[in-house]
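User: Could you write out the 3D structure of this protein bound to FE2/S2 (inorganic) cluster? I've included everything you need below.
Assistant: Certainly. Input first, then the structure.
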Amino acid sequence: MSGYVEQLWDQLPENERQAMNILNKIQTEYGFIPRNLLFELAERTGIPESQLHGLVSFFKAYRTTPAGKHRIRICYGTACYARGASLIYDRFAEELKLESGDTSADGLVTVEQVYCVGACSQAPVIIQDEEIKNRIQSYQVPLLLNDLRKKS
Ligand code: FES
């Protein structure tokens, strides 16, 4: 992983050597922005590491820790929230013992909150990896997790 930014910098045409572009490539390659690569990017661009960290913290598309093998996104848009999105989130958090952070200790699942995914009439909605699941109720959460464990 070390030297990745330098290698990327050399491969990119000059007009694509921008911090955001490189952060996007790091996120795509590793699934998160490792601290050492943020440092490398700061060194290479001359942008203070604190500013880069601010960028990474601001945009939800960037992660600072590795994501779990499976990704659960719970819609917290108005329709889903009104129909129990927070109960679903709480059940995932309880089942996965998410005390700090969004990823289970075994690295199986990352649980995130997102806003309206455009399926309001089917609320509450979650997205399990790339599959939208409609009208989910909190009692279904253990079953969903069991299915994920079996798949892994
Ligand atoms: S509010 Fe959840 S899909 Fe629109």
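The chain is about 45% helix and 10% strand.
User: Perfect, thank you.
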